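Budget justification, computational time. The allocation requested in the original proposal was used primarily to generate structure tokens for proteins on the priority list. As evidence of use, we reproduce two of the resulting records. The first is shown immediately below.
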Amino acid sequence: MSIKNLFPSKKKDVLVKREEYHPLALLRDEINSLFDNFSRGFGMERFKERLDTFNPKIDIAESDKEIKVSAELPGIDEKDIEVSTTKNSLTIRGEKKEEKEDKGKGCYRKERSYGAFSQTVQLPSEVDTDKIEANFKKGVLTVKLPKAAKAIKETKKIPVKAE
């Protein structure tokens, strides 16, 4: 038996003025809607897919001369990372491959998981693509993107006056 069958409600096809609709009927409809939304799409397959996806945490810092992007990529080899750029965006792609093997007393278990990721970051200003440096150390990718000369010249500080 569904929750909707517990209480009879007015037909949904008929338009009723809000003043004519009883407050408890409104509450009942809201609760029914809440339960419908809660139970919809709550299958374990979808829940597991959300857990398996890998999205690296990315920090962006900007100074007068460069933009520095750091991405946390734990458990990923440098050969599985690809960095590409345009004048105003940076894309980090990679593949995470993980294997776990457990040889216990009387049991053997081996798990494998694979997953690819791709994140594109819009850069706050134009960069010089010929002078970009990328370093990978202890699971952290650091990309230094020097700003283009045009972007540095166009930056102008404006004084703020108090009245």
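The second record produced under the same allocation is shown here.
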Amino acid sequence: MKSRNILIVIPGIFLAMTAMAAGNHAGGHGGVEEIGKPGVAANVTRTVNVNMTDDMRFHTSKIAVKQGETVRFVAKNSGQVKHEMVLGTAKELKDHYEVMKKNPEMEHADENMVTVAPGKSGEIIWHFTKAGKVDFACLQPGHYDAGMKGMVNVASSKAQSKGNAHVDNKH
């Protein structure tokens, strides 16, 4: 009887381990509402191109948007290794990075992040509901520590603006 129970339990354990190892952790992040919410493509007001390279930088790392704006981020991986763009608070990104170091093959399915294979592009459509700072980073092991980070400055919709939102394309 014991050996039969083990034969039933072992496949269940392997199934659970496989799910954890695959690391598709959709919906596993609390606090995303602090930075806004997933956007609707029909409401996109503009597209911001973000190039990710193997020098561990986002080329377009400082982005300015307005509260209430819905932005399509097109994240292009011009490098030879996998990169990702993850929107979040500084604390969320740091905490998530620690998990990624332990589970480097983790794939993302949340709407505030995209994992991009070399030579490919992916996108995030995001609606910025609150003024303030929204961070983004590549959480692949080693990339965050190397400085692959950026910031979105969300201007208050109540603030008087003398022009359009600015995108820093220096890099």
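A brief technical remark on that second record: Residues 56 and 146 are 6 Å apart (CA to CA).
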